[in-house]
Structure formats: structure tokens, C-alpha cells
Specification:
- This protein is an alpha/beta fold.
- It contains 12 helices and 6 strands.
- It has a 6-stranded parallel beta sheet with strand order 3-2-1-4-5-6.
- Helix 1 packs across helix 2.
- It is globular and about 55 Å long.
- The two termini are 16 Å apart.
- The model has no long low-confidence stretch (mean pLDDT 96).
- Keywords: Hydrolase.
- This is 2-haloacid dehalogenase.
- It holds the Pfam family Hydrolase.
- GO terms for molecular function: hydrolase activity, acting on acid halide bonds, in C-halide compounds.
Length: 239
């Protein structure tokens, strides 16, 4: 299968970077500054992330035109604040914008950059993320993520798992879907990619949702490759 694969594209939030710890790291001081030490920073991160899929579903369903993730994150942040009886207007635009950019400053999993650097020797590597271009670029610059290109929802004008998110990415790269492989820690993402004709690689991130995570601990199907992490993936792909 992998003899024809020319490019690897990666889910980012959860697969390449640890969104929960990164958001909680910045939410904690923010909550302290506004006098809400009673709110758990990790719980706040979880609540913010819980609004991610519903916001994108408004776009996938056609009820809303394509809207970049930075704006969706900002709208979701204001909703989470209101759910905690915090008036966003009282926080201030600058503080809200700064916290919203926490998603631009997420840290990679420990082996991710080294593994991606190895994989880059043989394959084109790029994000296939629901994150927008500015978010992905800022994240990569800060963390040293060695992408060959920044691809994803804003380029495809479609949010995963819409088939167009996968198919337009292959089209942009000038390759057939079968020559493109999605690497992800989420079985649902891989299922949609396989249905669109892509190759698939599963790399579990068993603490993405914290120590009590119960989903995506193991592969749910016989994906083309299953690896422990990105270094193991590089080894399995002969890089």
C-alpha cells in the first residue's frame, strides 16, 4: 500500500500537539486574573474543546458559510465564559484575543518533531487540520514543526470529516487520493479518510483528553499502519 504513497498529512489537534495541556496552561493564569480560581483550567479547556465539533457542524451542514477556526474558537470561548457566569465584555477584547491565540501556541508531543523530521526525508508532510492557515503557521514557527506546506480546512474550504477536506487536499498536492495518507490519533477521522480513498495510519495519543481518556485508545479497524508514535511510524515506513 505505501509503495504508492507520496505524501503524509496529519491531524494536528491531539495527534501532533497536546491541545488540552496547552490551553489549560494559558487558561489558568487568565482565570486567576479575572478572579475565578474556582474554575479548573483543564475543565475549562475541555469545555472549550467540547464546542469545537458542534461549531463546525453548522458549516458542514450548510447552515453557515465557511468560517475559519480562529473565529469559531473565539465565539466558543465567549460561550464558555457565559456558561461560567463571566461576561466576555467585562474581560476585554485584548484579553480574549490573547487567550484565543493559546491554540496557536500548543506544544507538540515529545517525539513529534523528531519523527516528522525523519518522515520528511521520504514524504511530503503537511497538516490536514481543521485549523486555519495563520493558526497552523504560527504553531509551526513556535514549535519547530517542519511542514512542507500548510494545508487543511481553509485550503479545502471544508471541515473534516467532509469528504472534500480529504479529496481537495490530494488535488492541491497534485496526487491521487491513494497516494495520500492521513496520520491521525482519531479512528473517526481515519474512517472518513479511508472512505475518500486515502491510505491510513493510526498513532494513539492516549492522554489527549487527560488521564481518564476512554476513546481512541486502540485502532478500531485494520488501518494500513498502526504505530506507537511518530518515531515508530518512521521506522515502520522505512525512513
Amino acid at each position: 500500500m505505501f509503495e504508492q504513497v507520496k505524501a503524509l498529512v496529519f491531524d494536528v489537534f491531539g495527534t501532533v500537539v497536546d491541545w488540552r495541556e496547552g490551553v489549560a496552561r494559558e487558561a489558568g493564569p487568565f482565570l486567576a486574573r479575572i478572579g475565578r480560581n474556582d474554575i479548573d483550567a483543564h475543565g475549562f479547556a475541555d469545555a472549550w474543546r467540547a464546542r469545537y465539533q458542534p461549531a463546525m457542524e453548522e458549516i458542514r451542514s450548510g447552515r453557515r458559510g465557511f468560517t475559519r477556526l480562529d473565529l469559531l474558537h473565539r465565539e466558543n470561548l465567549e460561550q464558555v465564559l457565559r456558561a461560567h457566569d463571566i461576561d466576555p465584555a467585562g474581560v476585554g477584547e485584548a484579553a480574549l484575543d490573547e487567550l484565543n491565540r493559546a491554540w496557536h501556541r500548543l506544544d507538540p508531543w515529545p517525539e513529534a518533531v523528531a519523527g516528522l523530521t525523519r518522515l520528511k526525508r521520504r514524504f511530503i508532510i503537511a497538516p490536514l487540520s481543521n485549523g486555519n492557515i495563520a493558526l497552523m503557521t504560527n504553531m509551526a514557527k513556535r514549535a519547530g514543526i517542519p511542514w512542507d506546506a500548510i494545508l487543511g480546512a481553509e485550503v479545502a474550504q471544508a471541515y473534516k470529516p467532509d469528504p472534500q477536506a480529504y479529496l481537495r487536499t490530494a488535488e492541491v498536492l497534485g496526487i491521487r487520493p491513494a497516494e495520500l495518507c492521513l496520520v491521525a490519533a482519531h479512528n473517526g477521522d481515519l474512517k472518513a479518510a479511508r472512505a475518500a480513498g486515502l491510505a491510513t495510519a493510526f498513532v494513539p495519543r492516549r492522554t489527549e483528553h487527560g488521564p481518564g481518556q476512554s476513546s481512541d485508545l486502540e485502532p478500531s479497524e485494520a488501518w494500513d499502519v498502526v504505530a506507537r508514535d511518530f518515531q515508530d511510524l518512521a521506522h515502520r515506513l522505512g525512513v
